[in-house]
Amino acid sequence: MPGFELLYQAAALCLMYPDDDFRARLQLLREAAPQLREFADHAAVTPPRELAAHYVEVFEAGQDHSLYLSVWREAAPAPSEEVYRAHGLETTGEEPPDFLPAVLEFAARTGSIELLTEHRDGLDGLRSRLTDFGTPYATVLDAVCATLPPAHTGPDTA
């Protein structure tokens, strides 16, 4: 589904640790991806230390909300560095290739949502857990999942 590249890039930024660069990009992010305004507005009014502490609480304090697709692996294997290289991209080595912001950036740069759709069930699971946890990060996953085809629920009946 072409046309969501800006959203995927913006969502990748939202799901990274909220440093000073993130805060500097909030207005641009808000304008470029209206689907993320709720999260951007929340981030803009939340004190930096509080936002950073919340990020750590949500994403780094256990496996319940992991941003690594290998944790949410269903039938699809986790993305590998070879997948990135096949599209002319290199990973930085800072995070593994299954880190959700990296996968979103891959989709933004290539226009391919294959990695996202392969992990749709895991993304839905993460989105549900974030919603239940009551974090504004759930709205970022809501926006991403809204761009993807529905999860495959079983054998084709056609």
TrEMBL record:
Statement: the UniProt record of this protein carries the keyword Cell wall biogenesis/degradation: no
Signal peptide: none
InterPro entries: DMSO/NO3_reduct_chaperone, NO3_reductase_chaperone_NarJ, TorD-like_sf
Pfam families to which the protein is assigned, alphabetical: Nitrate_red_del (PF02613)
Keywords: Nitrate assimilation
SUPFAM superfamilies: TorD-like (SSF89155)
Name recorded for this polypeptide: Molecular chaperone TorD family protein
Organism name: Streptomyces purpurascens
